[in-house]
Queue: 2 jobs
Job 1
Amino acid sequence: MPDPKRTLVFAFGFLVIYGLLITPWPGLKPFYARYFQALGRAVFGDNGSRRTLEFQPLDNHGHVWPPNFDTAIIMGNRDWRDATGQSHRYLLTVDAWQMGWTPTAFLTALTLATPLPWRRRLGALFRGSWLIHGFILLTLGIFLWNESTRLGLVMLSPFWKGVANQLEQLALNPVGPSFFVATLIWVLVTFRRRDLRPREDPDF
């Protein structure tokens, strides 16, 4: 049976850590956006194929996009050119903070608040960081894959286009899969089988 005191300490620690991590401290959001853009360039950047991708800060002075959006992704098709010879390009925008930092902060808070020895917590956080980055890149990859249909980079039948649209909506849902996946990663990297066994009553 869970120890109420340990559960309360865990819940309080999680709320404090998550609150501190998710607070947009001055300079933190632009810093993470630059990191997110660099990560996107490293994984999805131009590799000589038909598709071109550029990740850069979003210039939103005209307030065209939601105010929280901070990253512009410019996608192009080298084989589609206009009358001037320029390749067709399409502008995508994302909120790096919501897509990347929110699940990372959630996982970090869960892991650091867990009442286990610090060595295990830090080890779990290291492993979890790799997995949550994989999830972030998968989310971004689904988004880019579906949007590639706009430039003829991916050809999908109406049925599969509908499936792709649903996957994109699911992947970009700000409160759904990211928290579920972060929780699942926390369980997988933090706990061992013996942690789930009932604790023996010290009075016997």
Job 2
Amino acid sequence: MNKKIIFFAGFVFLIVTGLLFYGCGQKEKSQTGVSEEIAYWTCAMHPSVRVSPQEYNSGRKNCPICGMDLIPVKKSEKGKDTSSEPKTMSPEPASEVKVKISPQEIRSAGVRTSPVAYRHLFKEIITVGKVAYDPELVVAEEEYLAALSGYEKISAGSNPGAADQSRRLLEQAEYRLKLLGLNETIIAELKKNRRPHKNLLLPENRVWIYADVYEYELGSLAVGQKIEVEAAAYPGEIYSGRIISISPTLDSMTRSVRIRAEVENPALKLKPEMYVQVRIVNHLGDHLAVPKDAVLDTGRRQVVYVDKGDGEYLAKEVKVGELAEVEFNGRREKFYPVKSGLEPGDVVVTKANFLIDSQSQITGAAASSAYGGALETKTDLPSEMPPGHQH
């Protein structure tokens, strides 16, 4: 009897011990499968952060730098952690890098896209000007007309020496007009009409407007371009005109250039020295254009991410022109004209492209390093602007 009891107890012990070993083996296998799937956890904005699966399971689920939720970085399909091995680029052109993003990350980041298409672009300059009051210029015009009259009379005579001296005086008077901002066209009209611009002293049916624009805006200006003027004294009343002259010299202190425009003043409401708001619109025509928010500017290169579908994004180096505007149903948006790198119909990322660029560093595509730091920004505008000059 005692032998039977001992045998039965030993049998039960073996069964229990086997079950325990089996359960531990299954648990170890499960944990091993999880660890084989995820190499480590990192931050989309700070890829230098690496948290092991064990640390993550113990509660370290947020980035210690910015507090964002950590994201998993999986091992290779063979279960080998390649995070410590050198990254190799896929055989893509130097200006293109592919990035793969999971659907969950796309939804959480709020990725938005926009098609690349031909759009009507324009640039608008809004600055402060004033109705001209310029006695110095009027005097210079009168001196020029007097020198012109004297030269015509003397050159008709028989004294070559006097005619040559009179010609030099006329050239000096014309040179002074150019220094004061008049161009060849205005001087030719002055020579034809033989009348100085009295509207620089008193109101007339047409008045001159003086306004200053920055040197980087000169490419958007041309003589003959239309402008609109609104005086603070008459809100809502728009006076139309055109640019008649652009100063040949630059103000070294303000980095600006003075323009002169002539506008209609039928009721003589615009008075000399009256301040006005000047609006200049330059229509650039139809161009292949990309939204401003789609372009990551390194200061040396511009990068956009093209949506290829199924969570795949292609980083492409592009060349763009000066920032312009597009109007949609009365609403304006900033666009760049595309010079190269994109085709009509390409779909570019306009929101969360910084996140995608960060993900490219995590996965080894390293768009930022490849393009000299795509997360850097460049400012095209001066840090300070004179009061009243708006854009």
